[in-house]
Amino acid sequence: MSHRYESAAAWREVDAYFTEALVSEDAALAAARESSARTTMPDAEVAANQGALLGLLTKIAGARRVLEFGTLAGYSTIWFARAVGPAGKVVTLELEESNAAVARANLAHAEVLDRVDLIVGQAATSAQGLIDAGTEPFDLVFIDADKPSNPLYLDAALRLTRPGAVIVIDNVVRDGAVVAPDTGDPRVEGVRAVTATIGADADLEATALQTVGVKGWDGLIVARRV
Ligand code: DHB
Ligand code: MG
Q1: How far is CA 185 from the centre of its chain?
Q2: Among 24, 72, 185, 215, which residue carries the largest CB count within 10 Å?
Q3: Would you say residue 1 has pLDDT above 60?
Q4: What's the whole-model pTM score?
């Protein structure tokens, strides 16, 4: 039996195998994925098996309130909204009104719009608004917006969560760029800064995993407030 390594085609094939076997992406999720072409960042949504992981983490954590930085077409938002259930709430922050319009239609199609608050504007500003309003703490935060702002988003997440809350950060590997010398790329700097902050914070326990698949070579940080 032959094995293929370091092949993007093989990664896609394995993703297809497990997604077909284990993950049901229904018509609403499929439509949300396809609609990503009409957003400012086509193909940036998580893969189906990653969306399923986010939903599982939400359920495993017993999360009822989820905060998401970066909505785009609302693909991961649908996974979270389904995972928190009808009594739960997802607050999702999106910079672009045009993306928010796409997301609203997808959330309505998925019949979860009633349990989602979509706030349009700079995510750091919107998060500060939630802090100022004394918003009820969140149980899980997904940071998946502009990467240079990752440290700001983590800071807001720590102010908006309860002890025991889960924080997930997407796209922390980016083809290995995270360890490339002298990139000068503010997205890479944002990932390194947030990683260093988490590592130095005794109130956060965390790990990071690399992933390969339909989204290429990337990875995510999973952290938990002690
Ligand atoms: C990019 C951002 C994402 O959140 C993602 O999942 C993939 C790509 C990007 O900035 O290109
Ligand atoms: Mg992402």
Answers
A1: 21
A2: 72
A3: no
A4: 0.97
